[in-house]
Amino acid sequence: MGVRRAVKGVGEFLIEAVGETVGEAILNLLACALLGGLVLIAYASWSFSPRLTIAGAGLLSLFLAHGAWQTFRSPAKGRRRGLAALTTAGFALAAGTAVFLLFYATGCDCL
Predict the structure, then answer these.
(1) Which of 38, 50, 78, 80 lies at a 20 to 30 A Cα distance from 32?
(2) How far apart are CA 36 and CA 47, in angstroms?
(3) Dihedral of the alpha carbons of 77, 83, 89, 94, in degrees to the nearest 10
């Protein structure tokens, strides 16, 4: 009985270790692809029009700043509607993407 339990434990450990390794590899690949896509978009945008790129970056910064302000200020009565909900969701998505890239893309060899 002890041998079967030991073999079963080792098998479960190996399955878990392989699963974690594959999961990390997939997340690293996705992070590198996302980072490469962002760099490609920035390069193509700058090649097309530097002025529009700076204007777009400014508008995106204002959008994210409004979302951060809506997220971290004291809650108002009722639900968030319209622009406030949109900018809050955009800020949450951008913050999540930044954290994802910070943890995974910095560890890949694409940098």
Answers:
(1) 50
(2) 16
(3) -130
User: How far apart, in whole angstroms, are the C-alpha atoms of residue 29 and residue 17?
Assistant: 18
pTM: 0.66
**DSSP state for residue 10 in the 8-state scheme:** H
Cβ atoms of 105 and 34 closer than 8 Å: yes
Nearest to 34 by CA among 89, 83, 104, 92: 104
DSSP-H helix ranges across the chain: 2-48, 50-72, 83-104
Distance separating alpha carbons of residues 107 and 98, to the nearest angstrom: 14
Token pair 């690949």 in the structure block, residue? 29
Asked if 4 contacts 81 with a C-beta cutoff of 8 angstroms, the reply is no
C-alpha 37: how far from chain center: 13
